[in-house]
Amino acid sequence: MSAAEAAPDVTTMETANDRLKKSFSSWFWASMIAATVIHFAVFAFWPELTAEDMSFTSEELETIELPPEIEIPPPPQAIARPATPVIAEANIDEDITIAPTTFEENPVEDLPPPPEERTADISAAPTFTPFTVAPSILNRDEVVRAMEREYPPLLRDAGIGGTVRVYFFIDENGQVQDRRIDQSSGHQALDDAALNVSAVYRFSPALNRDKKVPVWVSFPITFQVR
Protein backbone atom coordinates (compact mmCIF):
# COMPACT_ATOMS: atom_id res chain seq x y z
CA MET A 1 0.00 0.00 0.00
CA SER A 2 1.40 3.37 -0.97
CA ALA A 3 1.68 6.37 1.31
CA ALA A 4 -0.98 8.23 -0.67
CA GLU A 5 -3.47 5.46 -0.17
CA ALA A 6 -2.65 5.25 3.51
CA ALA A 7 -3.31 9.06 4.22
CA PRO A 8 -6.83 9.84 5.62
CA ASP A 9 -9.39 11.86 3.59
CA VAL A 10 -9.50 15.39 5.08
CA THR A 11 -12.53 17.54 3.98
CA THR A 12 -12.26 21.36 4.44
CA MET A 13 -15.54 22.97 5.69
CA GLU A 14 -16.44 26.52 4.51
CA THR A 15 -17.52 28.92 7.28
CA ALA A 16 -19.98 31.87 7.15
CA ASN A 17 -17.10 34.32 7.42
CA ASP A 18 -15.52 32.82 4.34
CA ARG A 19 -18.78 33.07 2.42
CA LEU A 20 -19.16 36.76 3.48
CA LYS A 21 -15.68 37.61 2.28
CA LYS A 22 -16.35 35.99 -1.11
CA SER A 23 -19.68 37.84 -1.61
CA PHE A 24 -18.49 41.28 -0.33
CA SER A 25 -17.28 42.48 -3.67
CA SER A 26 -20.54 41.68 -5.46
CA TRP A 27 -22.68 43.27 -2.71
CA PHE A 28 -20.53 46.44 -2.68
CA TRP A 29 -20.72 47.08 -6.40
CA ALA A 30 -24.40 46.22 -6.53
CA SER A 31 -25.19 48.80 -3.78
CA MET A 32 -23.09 51.46 -5.55
CA ILE A 33 -24.96 50.89 -8.80
CA ALA A 34 -28.34 51.01 -7.02
CA ALA A 35 -27.47 54.28 -5.27
CA THR A 36 -26.38 55.87 -8.55
CA VAL A 37 -29.58 54.82 -10.30
CA ILE A 38 -31.73 56.19 -7.47
CA HIS A 39 -29.95 59.59 -7.54
CA PHE A 40 -30.38 59.96 -11.33
CA ALA A 41 -34.06 58.93 -11.04
CA VAL A 42 -34.68 61.55 -8.32
CA PHE A 43 -33.11 64.35 -10.39
CA ALA A 44 -34.95 63.16 -13.54
CA PHE A 45 -38.45 63.10 -12.03
CA TRP A 46 -38.04 65.99 -9.52
CA PRO A 47 -35.66 68.51 -11.13
CA GLU A 48 -36.79 71.40 -8.79
CA LEU A 49 -36.30 69.49 -5.59
CA THR A 50 -34.59 71.74 -3.04
CA ALA A 51 -33.70 71.42 0.58
CA GLU A 52 -36.10 73.00 3.11
CA ASP A 53 -34.92 76.11 4.90
CA MET A 54 -34.20 74.98 8.42
CA SER A 55 -32.78 78.29 9.66
CA PHE A 56 -34.21 79.93 12.82
CA THR A 57 -34.06 83.30 14.48
CA SER A 58 -33.46 83.95 18.17
CA GLU A 59 -35.03 86.70 20.26
CA GLU A 60 -32.88 89.60 21.23
CA LEU A 61 -31.42 89.10 24.67
CA GLU A 62 -32.35 91.74 27.21
CA THR A 63 -29.77 92.76 29.75
CA ILE A 64 -31.02 92.68 33.32
CA GLU A 65 -29.77 95.46 35.52
CA LEU A 66 -27.74 93.92 38.28
CA PRO A 67 -28.27 95.11 41.88
CA PRO A 68 -25.57 97.30 43.36
CA GLU A 69 -22.72 95.50 44.91
CA ILE A 70 -23.16 94.96 48.63
CA GLU A 71 -20.23 95.94 50.73
CA ILE A 72 -19.68 93.34 53.43
CA PRO A 73 -18.44 94.96 56.65
CA PRO A 74 -15.32 93.57 58.19
CA PRO A 75 -15.74 91.08 61.04
CA PRO A 76 -15.85 92.56 64.57
CA GLN A 77 -12.70 92.67 66.54
CA ALA A 78 -12.15 89.78 68.88
CA ILE A 79 -12.95 90.51 72.52
CA ALA A 80 -9.91 90.39 74.67
CA ARG A 81 -9.86 87.79 77.36
CA PRO A 82 -10.43 89.15 80.87
CA ALA A 83 -7.41 89.54 83.00
CA THR A 84 -6.68 86.72 85.38
CA PRO A 85 -7.39 87.89 88.92
CA VAL A 86 -4.38 88.05 91.12
CA ILE A 87 -4.60 87.75 94.88
CA ALA A 88 -2.93 90.81 96.33
CA GLU A 89 -0.99 90.63 99.48
CA ALA A 90 -2.22 93.05 102.15
CA ASN A 91 -1.16 93.33 105.71
CA ILE A 92 -4.23 93.69 107.95
CA ASP A 93 -3.71 94.73 111.51
CA GLU A 94 -5.46 92.18 113.69
CA ASP A 95 -5.71 94.69 116.55
CA ILE A 96 -8.37 96.80 114.75
CA THR A 97 -11.55 96.99 116.85
CA ILE A 98 -14.76 99.04 116.74
CA ALA A 99 -15.17 101.44 119.59
CA PRO A 100 -18.16 100.57 121.80
CA THR A 101 -21.18 102.91 121.84
CA THR A 102 -21.84 104.33 125.29
CA PHE A 103 -24.45 106.68 126.76
CA GLU A 104 -21.67 108.92 128.02
CA GLU A 105 -20.60 109.72 124.47
CA ASN A 106 -24.21 109.82 123.18
CA PRO A 107 -26.42 111.44 125.85
CA VAL A 108 -30.19 111.03 125.51
CA GLU A 109 -30.69 114.80 125.41
CA ASP A 110 -28.83 115.00 122.09
CA LEU A 111 -30.85 112.28 120.34
CA PRO A 112 -33.43 113.38 117.70
CA PRO A 113 -37.11 113.04 118.68
CA PRO A 114 -38.99 109.96 117.46
CA PRO A 115 -41.10 110.39 114.31
CA GLU A 116 -44.69 111.39 114.83
CA GLU A 117 -47.15 108.53 114.45
CA ARG A 118 -49.52 109.25 111.59
CA THR A 119 -52.85 107.51 111.51
CA ALA A 120 -54.34 106.98 108.08
CA ASP A 121 -57.92 108.03 107.46
CA ILE A 122 -59.54 104.68 106.63
CA SER A 123 -63.03 106.16 106.41
CA ALA A 124 -62.38 107.59 102.95
CA ALA A 125 -62.81 104.28 101.09
CA PRO A 126 -63.20 100.56 101.88
CA THR A 127 -59.83 99.11 102.84
CA PHE A 128 -58.40 96.26 104.85
CA THR A 129 -58.56 96.92 108.58
CA PRO A 130 -57.10 94.39 111.02
CA PHE A 131 -59.21 93.17 113.92
CA THR A 132 -59.39 90.11 116.13
CA VAL A 133 -63.10 90.25 117.00
CA ALA A 134 -65.53 91.03 114.18
CA PRO A 135 -68.54 93.29 114.77
CA SER A 136 -71.83 91.44 115.22
CA ILE A 137 -75.39 92.47 114.31
CA LEU A 138 -77.40 93.50 117.39
CA ASN A 139 -80.89 93.98 115.87
CA ARG A 140 -81.54 91.05 113.52
CA ASP A 141 -85.34 91.11 114.01
CA GLU A 142 -85.50 94.76 113.09
CA VAL A 143 -83.36 94.10 109.99
CA VAL A 144 -85.72 91.30 108.89
CA ARG A 145 -88.77 93.59 109.20
CA ALA A 146 -86.93 96.29 107.22
CA MET A 147 -86.13 93.80 104.44
CA GLU A 148 -89.81 92.79 104.19
CA ARG A 149 -90.83 96.46 104.13
CA GLU A 150 -88.25 97.58 101.55
CA TYR A 151 -88.62 94.57 99.19
CA PRO A 152 -89.81 96.11 95.85
CA PRO A 153 -93.41 94.86 95.33
CA LEU A 154 -93.03 94.35 91.56
CA LEU A 155 -89.97 92.11 92.00
CA ARG A 156 -91.51 90.28 94.96
CA ASP A 157 -94.73 89.54 93.06
CA ALA A 158 -92.71 88.34 90.08
CA GLY A 159 -90.67 86.03 92.32
CA ILE A 160 -87.41 87.85 91.52
CA GLY A 161 -84.85 87.98 94.31
CA GLY A 162 -81.15 88.54 94.70
CA THR A 163 -78.26 89.19 97.05
CA VAL A 164 -76.58 92.57 97.52
CA ARG A 165 -73.29 92.85 99.40
CA VAL A 166 -73.00 96.14 101.27
CA TYR A 167 -69.87 97.73 102.74
CA PHE A 168 -70.33 99.14 106.28
CA PHE A 169 -67.87 101.50 107.92
CA ILE A 170 -68.31 100.99 111.68
CA ASP A 171 -66.59 103.34 114.11
CA GLU A 172 -65.18 102.54 117.55
CA ASN A 173 -68.64 102.81 119.14
CA GLY A 174 -70.34 100.40 116.69
CA GLN A 175 -72.11 103.18 114.83
CA VAL A 176 -72.46 102.88 111.02
CA GLN A 177 -70.81 105.95 109.51
CA ASP A 178 -70.84 104.97 105.81
CA ARG A 179 -72.59 102.44 103.55
CA ARG A 180 -71.67 101.48 99.97
CA ILE A 181 -72.54 98.78 97.45
CA ASP A 182 -69.83 96.12 97.40
CA GLN A 183 -71.43 93.73 94.87
CA SER A 184 -74.62 94.47 92.95
CA SER A 185 -77.53 92.05 92.61
CA GLY A 186 -78.05 93.01 88.98
CA HIS A 187 -81.28 94.91 89.76
CA GLN A 188 -81.07 98.59 90.62
CA ALA A 189 -84.31 98.39 92.64
CA LEU A 190 -82.84 95.66 94.88
CA ASP A 191 -79.59 97.62 95.29
CA ASP A 192 -81.53 100.72 96.41
CA ALA A 193 -83.62 98.62 98.79
CA ALA A 194 -80.49 97.09 100.31
CA LEU A 195 -79.06 100.57 101.02
CA ASN A 196 -82.32 101.52 102.75
CA VAL A 197 -82.17 98.35 104.86
CA SER A 198 -78.50 98.96 105.72
CA ALA A 199 -79.51 102.16 107.56
CA VAL A 200 -81.30 100.00 110.16
CA TYR A 201 -78.26 97.87 111.09
CA ARG A 202 -76.73 98.19 114.58
CA PHE A 203 -73.39 96.58 115.39
CA SER A 204 -71.17 95.87 118.33
CA PRO A 205 -67.73 97.52 117.97
CA ALA A 206 -64.85 95.53 116.48
CA LEU A 207 -61.87 94.71 118.69
CA ASN A 208 -58.22 94.44 117.82
CA ARG A 209 -57.06 92.42 120.84
CA ASP A 210 -58.56 94.50 123.68
CA LYS A 211 -58.89 97.80 121.80
CA LYS A 212 -61.99 99.04 119.97
CA VAL A 213 -61.11 99.92 116.36
CA PRO A 214 -63.01 101.29 113.34
CA VAL A 215 -63.36 98.76 110.52
CA TRP A 216 -64.82 98.21 107.07
CA VAL A 217 -66.92 95.03 106.80
CA SER A 218 -69.07 93.59 104.03
CA PHE A 219 -72.41 91.88 104.78
CA PRO A 220 -74.85 90.22 102.34
CA ILE A 221 -78.49 91.36 102.20
CA THR A 222 -80.63 88.73 100.46
CA PHE A 223 -84.13 89.33 99.16
CA GLN A 224 -86.14 86.17 98.42
CA VAL A 225 -89.78 85.14 98.18
CA ARG A 226 -90.81 82.78 100.98
Q: Mind telling me the CATH class of the domain at 127-223?
A: Alpha Beta
Q: Can you give the helix content as a percent range?
A: 25-40%
Beta percentage is 5-15%
Structural class: alpha+beta
CATH topology of the domain at 127-223: TolA/TonB C-terminal domain
Q: How many strands, what sense, and barrel or not for the largest sheet?
A: 3 strands, antiparallel
Distance between the termini: 159 Å
Based on the structure given, which CATH architecture of the domain at 127-223 is correct? 2-Layer Sandwich
- Count helical runs: 5
Widest sheet: strand order? 2-1-5
Low-confidence spans: pLDDT under 50, at least 5 residues? Answer: none
Number of strands: 5
Order of helices and strands, N to C? HHHHEEHEEE
Write the CATH homologous superfamily of the domain at 127-223: TonB
Overall pLDDT confidence:
81
The gross shape turns out to be: elongated
What does this molecule look like?
- This protein has 226 residues and is an alpha+beta fold.
- It has a domain at 127-223: 2-Layer Sandwich (TolA/TonB C-terminal domain), CATH 3.30.2420.
- Helices cover 27% and strands 14% of the residues.
- It has five helices and five strands.
- The protein has helices at 3-6, 16-45, 140-150, 153-157, 188-198; strands at residues 162-170, 176-183, 206-208, 211-213, 215-223.
- Strands 2-1-5 form a three-stranded antiparallel sheet.
- The longest helix is centred in the first third of the chain and has 30 residues, at 16-45.
- The chain is elongated and about 145 Å long.
- The relative contact order is 0.12.
